[in-house]
Amino acid sequence: MQAAVAGFALGFSLILAIGAQNAFVLRQGIRREHVFAICLTCAVSDALLIAAGVAGFGALAEAVPGLETAMRYGGAAFLIWYGARNFLAAWRGGEVMEASRGTGSLRKALLTCLALTWLNPHVYLDTVVLLGSVSAQYEDRLSFAIGAVSSSFFFFFSLGYGARVLDPIFRNPQSWRVLDVIVGLTMWAIAAKLIVG
Predict the structure, then answer these.
(1) Are 147 and 5 in contact (CB under 8 A)?
(2) CA 59 → CA 55, 56, 75, 156, distances in Å?
(3) Which of 26, 131, 160, 184 has the fewest C-beta atoms lying within 10 Å of its C-beta?
């Protein structure tokens, strides 16, 4: 039980910071577009990475020379592109919360979600390396992993569906512009951090 609580607490604290993935889930939740599919994709991706870390694959980055660098620059390039898209949306403006929901493509939303998850080197550092190494301190590593995976499911579904509380605010087109600028700045800040190292 202690290992499961520790896994939940550590997993939740790592995922809590607003990053590219969380900003995307928040945006989809506010728009009410494919929320279940997006939340499930994020949580299952985390579960796979956590399982890999706890199973001892955290040494992969050390074993493959250049893997970390390639992931870092590839992730930064994607985040720069995605941030630019948000700045363009903010500049164009005109978006407002409408009664009709779910007009975006599920395929496009899932591909963006997967890219924001799997092209982000910090995801590997947090889930595979950090959670994997901390789990080694516990005799019951399975309970630790279950706790960490549970925190991902709890967090993403809370974020995705909890975003509806912001619905009245995002009926104003200016709110969307502000959100797009914040998301764009977040993406570019993370990209800069990746490039600098």
Answers:
(1) yes
(2) 11, 7, 20, 27
(3) 26
